[in-house]
Design a protein that fits this description.
This protein is an all-alpha fold. The chain folds into two domains: 2-209, no CATH class; 231-331. Helices cover 80% and strands 0% of the residues. The protein contains eleven helices and no strands. The protein has helices at residues 2-20, 28-55, 60-85, 92-117, 124-153, 159-178, 184-229, 237-243, 251-279, 290-311, 320-331. The longest helix is centred in the middle third of the chain and has 46 residues, at 184-229. The chain is elongated. 35% of the residues are buried.
Length: 333
């Protein structure tokens, strides 16, 4: 009963986040991975906090206010960094859900530990506070960190500031909650009301950005790909730009660049098509040759080299989000 009281609010909040994800970007197996890693973070945090508590000769109050927020938020953030490095997160929508799932796993393991190590006279109110307050706080802090980090990753030169500011914000909120600046009931009510509102705003803005990204790029890429296939690429500004590079690169590299642009446009259009199908509740289109085309694109990228890739930046910017959409396309197969 106690675990149900302390974990049900987290499941309810995760269901709320899933409802907000109109593009269905989240993968269940990654959510399960996040939950498991959150549980492992609890074990690592326990041993690390115990060691640091002895090292600083700190009592429980000092440990929970000033040490645990640092160690626990850093541990929970590690998987977020990993998922971004593997291009598993593209927008604030999926970042928030994965981040909250990590915190949910952490809070589940922590609540089980408290259940096994607290006196039996702890009443239901304590477990309700741990569920609607502490557990949601853990999920919310990691979700906010993930949202801020992905916003920085998608902007040149903002990754490190976003990571630092996001982590500091999560640590501050965690520490403020543990300090009990207000009564536990007031804190619990505040978190239960404010966090859904914040996430709804974040998701709305993320949806708007995703819609603009799809609409602006999708039709321009279709038009350019049609020109390429009609043999009219050289009449476009993009074609003229590629011709201007012929004095700087060998003829075979120019041919590779042409093939690279054509294949990238094709795959990019298909990736965006699948996103729009998901948003409207239709199954994505599965194509047997996608993996081979992705491998071919990777090979062409190697052949034109880093200098060639930078030279094509005005036409194709392989920033984090563009690499993410290709990863999404490959994951659909």
């Amino acid at each position: 009963m106690e675990i149900a009281l302390s974990f049900f609010p987290v499941l309810l909040f995760m269901a709320f986040l899933f409802q907000l994800d109109s593009f269905k970007l989240v993968r269940i197996k990654v959510v399960i991975l996040c939950l498991l890693c959150g549980i492992l973070s609890t074990a690592a945090g326990y041993f690390l906090n115990t060691f640091l508590g002895k090292w600083f000769a700190a009592d429980f109050q000092f440990l929970s206010r000033y040490i645990a927020p640092f160690t626990e938020e850093i541990l929970k953030s590690l998987l977020v960094f990993y998922l971004i490095s593997k291009k598993k997160i593209g927008f604030a929508i999926d970042a928030a859900i994965y981040g909250f799932a990590i915190g949910a796993g952490f809070s589940l393991a922590e609540n089980i530990w408290y259940l096994l190590n607290t006196p039996p006279e702890f009443n239901a109110l304590i477990w309700i506070i741990r569920g609607f307050g502490t557990a949601v706080m853990h999920g919310g802090c990691t979700a906010l960190f993930a949202v801020l980090l992905i916003s920085g990753v998608n902007r040149p030169g903002k990754r490190l500031p976003a990571a630092v500011s996001g982590l500091l914000l999560a640590i501050f909120l965690h520490g403020a909650f543990n300090a009990f600046l207000f009564s536990p009931i007031v804190q619990t009510i505040f978190i239960s009301i404010s966090l859904p509102v914040v996430m709804a705003i974040v998701f709305r803005q993320s949806n708007e950005k995703l819609q603009r990204w799809l609409e602006i790029e999708f039709f321009s890429e279709i038009e350019l790909l049609n020109m390429i296939r009609k043999g009219e690429f050289t009449t476009t500004k993009a074609g003229q730009f590629l011709i201007s590079l012929k004095d700087r690169f060998a003829p075979e590299i120019i041919v590779d660049m042409y093939c690279y642009i054509s294949l990238y446009m094709e795959l990019s259009i298909k990736a965006k098509r699948n996103l729009m199908l998901r948003e409207n509740g239709f199954p994505v289109i599965m194509e047997e040759d996608i993996q081979s085309k992705l491998a071919e694109l990777s090979q062409l990228r190697k052949q034109i080299g880093k200098v060639g890739e930078l030279s094509l930046a005005p036409l194709i910017r392989l920033n984090y989000r563009n690499l993410w959409k290709l990863t999404q396309l490959g994951n659909n197969q």
